[in-house]
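ugh finaly. both done.
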Amino acid sequence: MSELLEPSPLILDGITKPTFFRTTAGSIHRYHGREISPVLSAQPRDIYTPDIQRVKVLDATEDEVLDSLASVALVIGNRMDRMGVVSKDASKNEVDERKDYLDNLATGVLMRRFRDARYGINFTDSEGIQDQLLGANIKVMLGYQGANADLRSGVVDPLECTRLAAHGSNISEGQPPKPGVKAFIAFAANGAFKELPKDAGKYWEILAAPDVGGLDVRKDPLINIHRVITAKGIRPQDLRVVTLDRPDRTAMHMQDARALGVDLRPMEAGDFFAALMSGGKGADGKYQMVVGSGGGPEKLAAAAAMSASGEGFMQVTKYTPNREEMWGNEVYGHRDLVSASADTIGVVVVHITDDPFIPELKGVRPGSDLVHATIADHRGIRHVTTQGKIIGK
């Protein structure tokens, strides 16, 4: 086994000006007793001294959230394999039944795991929770809610990419699940998350990229793509462009990007994690950006990761079919979406199935309690493994 180092002195010694706890390629560190793979964020901050007490609360909350989401990952990953791969002849109703079953199962597991949490989270914009409790605008609070509760705001999806999850799997028979299924929670100081206008429609246009200046979500995606390539001095093929594969909303800029020669990656679902990882250069040497349109809660979680880590650039605006009309829409940057001190923001993602872009991030395997996760906060973005606990079988 690789040698494991001690946790950051930030927590152990209570120093006021910590060195930042970041890993380098090929190294493994211990973080709260869990292994960490190479961090993908680029440079530590020069001017930022986190508050020691806030960081202690942040770490404790991250641990509780990680433990809860790990249970979700194990339950869903194993249940997907027991369900088997959906028939090619399955009707839309059959697929929807599987989708709703898994979505509600994930939500139920998460709610049970949070009953014993020390810290309360008021989920102000939450996709999966809505499926369980009904009502698009409902607000849910999980965790300890007593008189002395240390409350924070959050966004959650207990099962991101439910339609991919509904595909199922039969790993022992060589039928793997579809990649990209995850669960996530992003949290910050109470009241930190902006509630996106409910009358703005279902879809939001997003731009997530390295922070090179001169980018604007309302511009034609090809202009922003050219800007990143020029600013970074790279070849088109060294830029990965991720977009949801939605012919009615993305066909034109996908065609233009492909003609340019970038590494175009249309996704069936789930561009949230790709946006979260768009701040710096990946382990494969490529930069990454996300363009296109999608849902709202996922954008808030990606914005939280960027606001905490100080890496990357992100904007969202109301999606309209006519791009010229977007110039009249309000634009929200990642710090507009999450207004809080960086040392109060945390994002935890568990990988229920393999990540499509990062081979080291594996999904749940039947018979194993190992869960791969990604944590983003003021120290950067890091990948960890933890042992999950199955409940609600």
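ok and the 2nd:
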Amino acid sequence: MHFGKRANIGISKRNGTRISLIYCMILYVWQIIYQITMDLLLLELMKKRIMLLAIVHSCLYCKKVIDVIVIRNDRNTPYYLTEQYQGVFANNIYSRIMDTNTPKNASADIDVIEKLWKKRFGIDATALDRALLFLQKPYYILWVELLWTVDDVELPPLGHFI
């Protein structure tokens, strides 16, 4: 079997078309790239103990594979790197406004950064959203300084208070 030729190795379950060996090799290489990309991304964010919910979509365009990282919209914003990585500077907060990205050598505008931090702490949320947030996460998880502890003390009998 030559890798240069298209060798049919199976039938697709979706529409019954034949799957070529070249397609399977591209899929395997994509899975390796996906795993490396996610490992590097998660390794960097694990230092901050934030679980990133991201998916890497890959598409083939003009015989080039384009990987798109989709990060789920949640309250753990802003994301930033703690060490420089492939031209992306550490501790810079990047954003995308309409169709313009933040330059690699700069950080986002101060109003954008402020909006992201407000989102993280729930300051920008409506009263109903904040109430739901507080019900989902108890106060002692959100604010550790409010954790109360009670030592073992002997309480007087109930008749003492009447």
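summary for the 2nd one i guess: The chain is about 30% helix and 15% strand.
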